Amino acid sequence: MIKELKSFYESQQLDNDLISHFFKEADEISEDYEDNLLKGQILVTLFYEPSTRTRMSFESAMLKLGGNVISTENAKEFSSAIKGETIEDTIRVIENYVDCVVIRHHEEGMVKRAADIARIPVINAGDGRGQHPTQALLDLYTINSEMGRVKDLNISLVGDLANGRTVRSLCYLLAKYPNNKLTFVSPENLRMKEDIKEHLREHKVEFTEENDLNKVLSSSDVVYMTRIQKERMTPEEYQKSKGKYIINESNFNLLRRESRILHPLPRVDEIQLPLHIEKYDPRVAFFRQAENGLYIRMALLKHFMAD
């Protein structure tokens, strides 16, 4: 029996059966879907931080399923939060108007606080340096689609691992499958935090840390690139870290033909490849990854909102 979720705020809530269920739903949705499944229902996207892919894919997912959307793309400034309203009061008000809320917040833990009090489903679209579980699910779905499996993989996670909520969330999911080996490639000041490392140790997931990106490219099945998050560090820290890890024409072919590059986007300067490679080389998977976000989020909305 598939586990039911009241809300979705962290990757640890998913078990393998539920992950497989979402994969199957996304596969079916990518081929065909019932476009009036959520007719008459309303989704609110409550975003206290900027977003392109996450907000638009959730809103598109809801519209494609026949529902309606209310959107607040800068709730930090254009909501009663600017007057000091708590997240709990905000949720207790808007749950009277809508059927589900997707929240992106600049503070870690805020989405769980909202979920704990809400009578309607609450979905985490990223909370500070915490997690981004729907991104992790679509990343894992992409890995499965591209590689044909989510186990027995060498996966290199590259860039800002200290602030990157996408890599944190993905590590929790990768730990659920056997024989995955993770390599963390980052500057010294942006290494993966100890809580994730401890989780991996508890689940007997092998991981190593590396400073040199080129050393790991030829042995990686998946290279998961991330940007250096300028907004979450001092100008001095950013200057020390920016431009340190780049995939370009000079090192791209260190990757095996069956390997894949993923990136949660947006990218800044960490992937610099000509258009003909990005369009036609199968190793470049991050735009397919972005497309998969629509199908996974449609599957999630169906799970939470369909009768």
Could you state the CATH homologous superfamily of the largest domain? Aspartate/ornithine carbamoyltransferase
Stretches where pLDDT is under 50 for at least 5 consecutive residues are: none
Share of β-strand residues: 15-25%
Q: How would you sum up the global shape? A: globular
Please report the distance between the alpha carbons of the first and last residues.
17 Å
Number of domains: 2
Radius of gyration: 19 Å
Q: Structural class of the helices, strands and pairings? A: alpha/beta
Give me the side-by-side strand order of the main sheet.
7-6-5-8-10
Tally of helical segments: 12
For the sheet with most strands, the description reads:
5 strands, parallel
Instruction: Briefly note the CATH topology name of the largest domain.
Output: Rossmann fold
What is the percent of helical residues?
A: 25-40%
Helix-strand pattern, N to C?
HEHEHEHEHEHEHEHEHEHEEHH
Query: Which CATH architecture of the largest domain would you pick?
Result: 3-Layer(aba) Sandwich
* Assigned CATH class of the largest domain: Alpha Beta
Mean pLDDT: 92
Q: Tally of extended strands?
A: 11
